[in-house]
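Colleagues,

For the teaching module next term, I've prepared a clean inverse folding example: a structure given as tokens, and then the sequence designed for it. I'd like students to try predicting residues themselves before seeing the answer, so please don't circulate the second half yet.
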């Protein structure tokens, strides 16, 4: 994206204005920012004329907000100047427009000294340029580099350089990075390697090789998995080439993923038009990412089938046990009759035993009698595991067909050099390739050292000669099950994978970590620069003080919401934090269709500019706004392009062309960011703050899939016997700031830090909440390190405190306190492993891997390491502090509940948007599901912006008119509403529709002002 002056276009104009524009104050903001402290009043005395004093107060107030200086005269800021004259200098009426340049420069120096800031001189600019190059190697997205630089100057309290300077700096850094990468590739790629890479762009039977590789498997069927294995063989040589070349590029794994994604977005035509060196960089990144993702797919297939067959065996065993007990109860009288044979006087003592047996078997068959004897001899208990293995015997052919391709396509490794499980895997792989059944090998040649002792009794049976014989199918399935368990525990891994590598492979290399001080400084994690002993001492003071204070307030009766029960348990009251969706206020608005809303939002913030053609500047086709809107509605409502072509006034071919050329997850996320940022600058937005801060929440929304799809998972609680996916969304002040699709069987807590840290909007939450699904053993600590407060909701707070509250002293030291720790923090564990913990935190900051991957591994209970225990201990300190605050502060509990309610309200809106097909997702591939998710979020975002624009306009009028009651009522109305928007019916995108006029809508509302105020007050809304 290029700016009109040929500079790199990083931000939209409204985003530039939000960062660099002079603030526009409302009355309450003037009261806050133009108030002078004692020190500021003393500094004001340095200026003699009243005009210079007014300018000083104005410049100081603006600097407090933007940390920038502005060039203006009094005619530009008439309302602010009038306020200052009225408050401080009632007799001042000088209409002169400006002050002398020398006075202005003096004022800037004084303000810098007051705020402890400094200007960006040549030395600072040089450092920023170097930092831009470093960041460009981490992530090649212009907006990411820009934000990292802005964060850096803010932390160092430096006045940000002009936006044009930042554009030049970011553009130069990205251009330098491209030249650097091209030079390295040029030196490393020889002619044979070039030929190999060029083959990806060759046409084979109408499809290019790269196009075939882009296709993901549709599901876990045997055909799809075998085809995935073949793809792995096809690109293995290219993958080895990427492994050889990419380390020399010294770029982050995040950048590798980013460059790989460009191959997904770009057509073969555009790749061919690039310089060879640039195309090779993208192709090598794509090959590495695709090969590793391929291994993820194969391992996920293994996990899926192991779980499925294991669960089926358990269910079948339960049925067997039930049936056997029913039949056993029916056979018990017959067993009693058989037992009487031994006491029956009518049976002569000299009768042959075979005669007794014949009489017994006449009453009950030999097999049933044997089963009943085993049943009675084991105190009428059944060995369900036996039934499970018998079920797996019948499923042997199915699970071998599904799982053996994984053995052939994946190379597993172990943390121990001579791990017996790896030896067994190699044996089974060798046997499978030879075509010789495992049972045909001698028992002494089959590795069994890995088999647990308690499982061995099920793996053998005795033949007719009484010799033990290994049951090969059971041996193989147990091997797959232990392979899965080993991967969960972190003992088994795959280095050619993304999700299933070892934790060590996900972190910064030990050699690079030698420069830890520089890496920590670059990451901006100030806490990590403090000695851990000092940091823990500070945390100890905080935690012990809070334990004492919380107990004191309970004992004194100051915590009015704390109730002690007769059984020794206690509870706290949970104040309500409701905000109703579909507020009655919106019933007064005129009905409009969704295309009208999207057109209105586009006129306000130009989000359509984000949709660039996949061919970039080589494209001849320009975006057709009505057709693009139709595509957004087709994808977002779950209707699909084909159906939209049937029921709208735009044909399928046009819609398909627009969708293929302009809609990509990347462009949709940028469009969502534009709308979110535009909402954030509306007047109403900051009135949605919770506790005077931006308080976000995240939660997953479940959607059943109506067709076969690879990433759909079972979740009996939500889908019954069906499958589905989860759309995981972060919502801040009602705005969906970030979202991603995850599997229904994945733990939501693994994605909390990921979704907050990778939020690319200008909305930066200070506090983030989730329900109980968002809690694990690391999120408190990780979020704290990155300057976010994690604030989950606990339903059973008593049990959570009873099991999780920790202190720096032994529990016996807290006497008879009602709220007291259950254990002592292991400080030594944290200190001993703190350097490794810092390495993990910096790896998260440097995007060495997806944050959810590291968090998942760190929070796995099966994984055992000293570093994990240290992180859990560190996390427990911050969790304990939060639990104490949660007990003591009813407002905190209310705020958490309110933030979560906003997420639930957004889910209602999202569900209403994705109404087609009864809400069952019809899209098959992950790419299509990402398009659906982002289009649906964009439509919801536009509805929220439209509603918030109306509320902002009304609020501004009410404040200007002095309608205090009406203004307060308006501030409580949630923008999550859709009853006034037509999401259904025939769609007419080409028909001329009168533009929504915000001024007209607001004037009509104002004419109903008393009614509006009454309706607003009638809603169930509290602030």
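(Answer key — instructors only)
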């Amino acid at each position: 994206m290029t700016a009109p002056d040929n500079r790199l276009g990083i931000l939209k104009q409204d985003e530039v204005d939000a960062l660099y524009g002079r603030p526009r104050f409302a009355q309450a903001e003037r009261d806050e920012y133009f108030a002078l402290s004692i020190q500021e009043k003393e500094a004001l005395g340095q200026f003699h004329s009243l005009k210079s004093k007014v300018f000083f107060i104005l410049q100081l107030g603006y600097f407090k907000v933007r940390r920038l200086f502005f060039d203006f005269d009094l005619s530009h800021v008439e309302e602010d100047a009038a306020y200052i004259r009225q408050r401080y200098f009632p007799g001042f009426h000088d209409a002169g427009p400006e002050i002398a340049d020398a006075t202005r420069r003096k004022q800037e120096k004084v303000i810098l000294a007051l705020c402890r800031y400094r200007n960006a001189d040549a030395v600072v600019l040089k450092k920023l340029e170097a930092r831009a190059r470093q960041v460009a190697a981490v992530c090649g997205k212009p907006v990411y580099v820009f934000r990292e630089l802005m964060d850096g100057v803010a932390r160092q309290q430096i006045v940000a350089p002009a936006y044009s300077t930042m554009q030049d700096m970011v553009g130069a850094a990205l251009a330098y990075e491209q030249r650097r990468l091209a030079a390295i590739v040029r030196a490393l790629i020889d002619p044979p390697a070039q030929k190999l890479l060029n083959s990806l762009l060759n046409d084979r039977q109408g499809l290019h090789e790269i196009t075939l590789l882009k296709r993901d498997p549709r599901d876990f069927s045997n055909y799809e998995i075998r085809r995935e294995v073949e793809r792995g063989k096809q690109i293995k040589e290219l993958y080895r080439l990427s492994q050889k070349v990419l380390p020399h590029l010294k770029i982050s794994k995040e950048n590798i993923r980013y460059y790989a994604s460009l191959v997904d977005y770009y057509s073969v035509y555009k790749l061919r038009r690039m310089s060879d060196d640039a195309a090779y960089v993208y192709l090598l990144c794509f090959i590495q990412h695709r090969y590793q993702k391929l291994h993820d797919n194969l391992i996920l297939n293994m996990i899926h089938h192991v779980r499925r067959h294991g669960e089926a065996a358990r269910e079948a065993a339960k049925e067997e046990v039930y049936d056997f007990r029913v039949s056993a109860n029916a056979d018990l009288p017959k067993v009693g009759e058989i037992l009487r044979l031994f006491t029956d006087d009518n049976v002569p003592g000299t009768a042959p035993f075979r005669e007794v047996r014949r009489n017994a078997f006449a009453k009950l068959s030999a097999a049933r009698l044997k089963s009943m004897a085993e049943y009675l001899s084991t105190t009428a208990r059944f060995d369900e595991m036996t039934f499970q293995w018998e079920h797996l015997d019948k499923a042997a052919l199915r699970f071998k067909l599904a799982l053996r391709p994984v053995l052939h396509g994946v190379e597993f490794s172990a943390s121990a050099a001579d791990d017996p499980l790896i030896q067994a895997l190699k044996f089974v792989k060798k046997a499978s390739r030879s075509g010789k059944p495992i049972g045909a090998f001698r028992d002494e040649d089959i590795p069994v050292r890995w088999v647990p002792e308690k499982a061995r009794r099920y793996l053998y049976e005795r033949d007719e000669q009484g010799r033990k014989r290994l049951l090969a199918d059971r041996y193989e399935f147990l091997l797959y099950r232990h392979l899965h368990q080993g991967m969960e525990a972190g003992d088994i891994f795959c280095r050619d994978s993304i999700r299933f590598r070892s934790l060590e492979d996900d972190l910064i290399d030990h050699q690079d970590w030698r420069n830890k001080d520089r890496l920590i400084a670059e990451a901006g994690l100030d806490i990590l620069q403090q000695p851990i002993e000092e940091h823990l001492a500070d945390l100890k003071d905080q935690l012990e003080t809070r334990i004492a204070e919380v107990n004191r307030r309970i004992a004194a009766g100051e915590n009015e919401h704390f109730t002690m029960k007769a059984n020794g348990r206690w509870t706290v009251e949970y104040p309500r934090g409701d905000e109703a969706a579909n507020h009655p206020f919106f019933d007064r608005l005129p009905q409009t269709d969704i295309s009208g809303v999207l057109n209105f939002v586009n006129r306000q913030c130009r989000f359509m500019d984000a949709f660039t053609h996949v061919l970039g500047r080589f494209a001849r086709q320009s975006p057709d706004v009505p057709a693009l809107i139709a595509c957004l509605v087709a994808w977002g409502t779950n209707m699909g392009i084909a159906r939209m072509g049937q029921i709208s006034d735009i044909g399928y071919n046009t819609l398909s062309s627009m969708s293929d050329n302009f809609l990509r997850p990347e462009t949709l996320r940028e469009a969502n960011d534009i709308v979110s940022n535009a909402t954030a600058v509306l007047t109403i937005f900051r009135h949605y703050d919770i506790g005077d801060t931006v308080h976000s929440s995240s939660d997953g929304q479940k959607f059943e899939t109506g067709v076969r799809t690879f990433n759909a998972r079972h979740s009996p609680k939500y889908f019954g016997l069906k499958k589905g996916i989860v759309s995981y969304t972060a919502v801040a002040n009602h705005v969906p700031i970030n979202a991603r699709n995850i599997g229904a069987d994945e733990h939501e807590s693994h994605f909390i830090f990921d979704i907050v840290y990778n939020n690319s909007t200008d909305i930066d939450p200070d506090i983030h909440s989730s329900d109980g699904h968002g809690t694990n053993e690391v999120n408190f600590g990780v979020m704290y390190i990155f300057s976010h407060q994690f604030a989950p909701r606990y339903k059973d707070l008593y049990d959570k405190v009873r099991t999780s509250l920790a202190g720096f002293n032994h529990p016996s030291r807290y006497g008879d306190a009602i709220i007291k720790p259950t254990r002592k923090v292991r400080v030594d564990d944290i200190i001993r492993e703190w350097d490794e913990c810092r390495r993990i935190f910096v790896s998260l900051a440097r995007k060495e891997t997806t944050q959810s991957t590291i968090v998942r591994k760190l929070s796995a209970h099966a994984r055992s390491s000293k570093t994990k225990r240290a992180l859990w201990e560190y996390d427990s300190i911050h969790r304990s502090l939060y639990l104490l605050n949660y007990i003591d502060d009813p407002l905190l509990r209310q705020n958490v509940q309110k933030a979560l309610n906003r997420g639930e309200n957004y889910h209602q809106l999202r569900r209403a948007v994705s109404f087609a097909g009864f809400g069952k997702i019809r899209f098959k591939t992950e790419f299509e599901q990402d398009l659906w998710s982002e289009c649906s979020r964009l439509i919801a975002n536009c509805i929220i912006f439209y509603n918030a624009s109306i509320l902002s306009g009304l609020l501004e009028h009410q404040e200007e008119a002095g309608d205090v009651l009406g203004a307060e009522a308006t501030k409580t109305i949630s923008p999550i509403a859709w009853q006034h928007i037509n999401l259904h019916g025939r769609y007419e995108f080409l028909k001329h529709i009168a533009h929504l006029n915000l001024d007209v809508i607001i004037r009509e509302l104002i004419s109903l002002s008393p009614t509006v105020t009454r309706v607003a007050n009638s809603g169930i809304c509290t602030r």
